[in-house]
Design goal:
The chain is of the alpha/beta class. It is built from eight helices and seven strands. It is globular and about 55 Å long.
Length: 286
């Protein structure tokens, strides 16, 4: 089909299609981030605040004194001690956010239990020896916790007829962990495997996003953002293996996912829902 360059294509009657606006503008949008005090939660917060958003941080941990002081000084930043597995707790937090600002526009489901390569020795045995307790603990936070957050905050977004929810996924939710990356630990006599529950939980989020995307369309968008590994001063042996395994030849820096977060929280992704946006340095391309 040929389209004349001097004649714009006809658009549907939608106020979001105005050519005069910045489609990446997120000024004053209220965004909830679970696991907000973690490495990536802090990176997302810094970027969103810099772009004028209002951010509600949810975390099980208490902020350190410096962080607490920074939060107290910011009128566009709030902190809420939260247990994502406790729906009543989340309902209380939603009410506090709405009283302070308004119904959230965005929800970033970032909280998760993981077992990084430097985890305690013998805490992550092979599949055959994984305990039911370890499985349940991970699934309770990584899946049931997201389920509760989507119920509470997503319901409010649906009532407000706008919003964007992001599931923070992992390459290990798309492909199996490469257990060879952890050979160096087993060579040292340590019983370490990337656990099955983490992979299963991250896989579950992809289809939970699709389910909710269709359930809440067209007003609330729900997408997955699948991430690769983030540099955090891991063991040199692990880093060497990861760098060799990744087309980009390195782990991500913590701020390299911020662009995707802004995209998903803005009108730039207004026609995107039920999708899985993969940013993994090419990990899943091999």
């Amino acid at each position: 089909m040929n389209v004349a360059l001097d004649k714009p294509m006809r658009r549907h009657n939608n106020p979001m299609t105005s050519a005069s606006r910045d489609i990446f503008d997120i000024t004053n949008r209220v965004v909830v981030i679970t696991g907000g005090l973690g490495q990536l939660g802090r990176a997302y917060t810094h970027e969103l605040l810099a772009r004028g958003a209002r951010v509600a941080l949810l975390d099980m941990a208490e902020p350190d004194p410096d962080t607490a002081a920074s939060i107290a000084e910011q009128d566009r930043l709030s902190f809420h001690r939260a247990d994502v597995t406790d729906r009543a707790n989340l309902e209380t937090i939603l009410a506090a956010i709405e009283a302070k600002w308004e119904t959230p526009f965005g929800l970033i489901n970032n909280a998760a239990l993981d077992s990084p390569p430097g985890s305690e020795a013998n805490a992550n045995p092979p599949f055959e020896e994984v305990s039911r307790e370890a499985w349940d603990a991970t699934m309770e936070v990584n899946v049931t916790g997201v389920f509760h957050c989507c119920q509470v905050f997503g319901k409010a977004m649906r009532r407000a007829k706008r919003g964007s929810i992001v599931m923070i996924g992992s390459t290990y939710g798309m492909v199996s962990p490469d257990q060879r990356l952890y050979d160096y630990r087993r060579d040292q006599g340590e019983d370490f495997y990337k656990p099955v529950a983490y992979s299963a939980s991250k896989s579950a989020l992809i289809n939970l996003a699709r389910y909710l995307a269709t359930h809440w369309a067209p007003h609330v968008r729900v997408n997955t953002l699948t991430l690769g590994g983030v540099f955090n001063h891991q063991d040199p042996e692990f880093l060497a293996g990861y760098e060799q395994r990744t087309p980009m030849g390195r782990m991500a820096q913590e701020d390299e996912y911020n662009g995707a977060i802004v995209f998903l929280m803005s009108d730039a992704s207004a026609y995107m829902t039920g999708a899985n946006l993969v940013m993994d340095g090419g990990w899943t391309a091999w």
